[in-house]
Amino acid sequence: MSTLKNKVQLIGNVGNEPEITNLESGKKAAKFSIATNEFYKNSNGEKEQNTQWHNVVAWGKIAEIVEKYVGKGKEVALEGKLTSRSYETKEGEKRYVTEVVANEILLLGIKGDNATE
């Protein structure tokens, strides 16, 4: 278990068109969100769905793949690590953000579906 330090694996659907940034170094960055769904039965035996949203950041080659092939609604599997950061708004409020930094991405779903065309 010593190799399991900070590792996240998610399968979900992309919630928005990825935001691509071209950096001065020539590399790219991609930001997008994915939704994961968990199903369970409540106390009345009815099926319930719990949706969690995850902010994802990808850099370099992974960001290039995201730019070319990933769109809103596309099902993806990704692996990465959790990171947290903070920033200050224009009003001086401190905000905290937790993101998944992707180091692998796998495109799922049907080949040629609308999300990749």
Automatic annotation (TrEMBL):
Keywords: DNA-binding. The keyword Transmembrane does not apply. One of its GO terms (molecular function) is single-stranded DNA binding. HAMAP family: SSB. It comes from the Bacteria. This is Single-stranded DNA-binding protein. GO terms for biological process: DNA replication. InterPro entries: NA-bd_OB-fold, Primosome_PriB/ssb, ssDNA-bd. Gene3D superfamilies: Nucleic acid-binding proteins (2.40.50.140). Pfam families: SSB (PF00436).
